[in-house]
Amino acid sequence: MPSREPPLVEPPFETGDDTVSGRSDQTDQSSGQTLQSTGGPDQPERPARGSARIAGVLLAAGTSDRFGERNKLLASHDGAPLVRHAAATLVASTVDPVVVVVGYESERVVDALDGLDVEIVHNPRYANGQASSVRAGIRALRDRPEQVDAAVVALGDMPFVDVATIETLCDAYEAGVGDALAAAYEGARGNPVLFDRRFFDDLVDVAGDVGGREILLDSDDSARVAVPDSGVRRDVDEPSDLS
């Protein structure tokens, strides 16, 4: 396994023409309320991005052995299931579309996302590991008629990530910081991550439970993007992680 960590880059990001600072004025993540519902005249408009079209992929298909008998994605935190918090963060950001990959207890997970503007992708091979969900989500984006330039990949069991972190990753990408980016807190690499379209074929071919880790560690165009958000290192594996 490669051991090289990508370089750490902090905002503001130099583009050559101007300076892009990581955004900190974004809306806080939802506590179960509908940030953007599907259909209807009252649906709020997504904020506009720059020239790149960046999508979001939420991995929400796996089982949760260490959490006990319950599906941890459906565990309640601040009045809403964990998976809803994670999805609402992407929906509140400027990534578009937001694809949620489901598998284990898919009907219940989809019900937990009711009213959020997300597209559902089913992964029948979810038991094969996280990489199977990465493949399903990235394939859905790669094969869309309208081209997606990059994808932010987030985890359904990480409900504490700030919306501003998603925006900072997107800003770093648009500023040319790199084509494979990972959010980092106090220098430690975490999630979510962002991949340029040129890696989509590689991501569709990933195996096992590593996701896109090897791309991040191997690519000369990868970077850790510094964010003041401890949520990028905080996932939920056991009930005590919610306290």
Unreliable segments (pLDDT under 50, ≥5 consecutive)?
Answer: 23-48
- The topology string of helices and strands comes to EEEEEEHEHEHEHEEHHE
The shape is globular
**Percentage of helical residues?**
10-25%
Named CATH architecture: Alpha-Beta Complex
**Would you tell me which CATH topology applies?**
Spore Coat Polysaccharide Biosynthesis Protein SpsA, Chain A
- Mean pLDDT, to the nearest integer, reads 83
Major sheet attributes:
8 strands, mixed
Tally of DSSP helical segments: 6
Q: What is the domain total for the residues?
A: 1
Strand proportion: 15-25%
Give the N-to-C terminal Cα separation.
34 Å
Q: For the CA atoms, what is the radius of gyration?
A: 17 Å
Give the class-level CATH name. Answer: Alpha Beta
CATH 4th-level superfamily: Spore Coat Polysaccharide Biosynthesis Protein SpsA, Chain A
Give a count of the beta strands, DSSP E runs of length 2 or more. 12
Question: What does this protein structure show overall?
Answer:
- With 243 residues, the chain is α/β, with parallel strands linked by helices.
- The protein has one domain (8-13, 51-232): Alpha-Beta Complex (Spore Coat Polysaccharide Biosynthesis Protein SpsA, Chain A), CATH 3.90.550.10.
- Helices cover 22% and strands 21% of the residues.
- The chain has helices at 82-92, 106-112, 130-142, 163-174, 200-204, 213-218, and strands spanning 8-9, 13-14, 19-20, 54-60, 76-77, 80-81, 98-102, 119-122, 150-155, 180-185, 188-196, 222-226.
- The strands form 3 sheets. It has an 8-stranded mixed sheet, with helices on both faces.
- A hairpin with a 2-residue loop joins strand 5 and strand 6.
- It is globular.
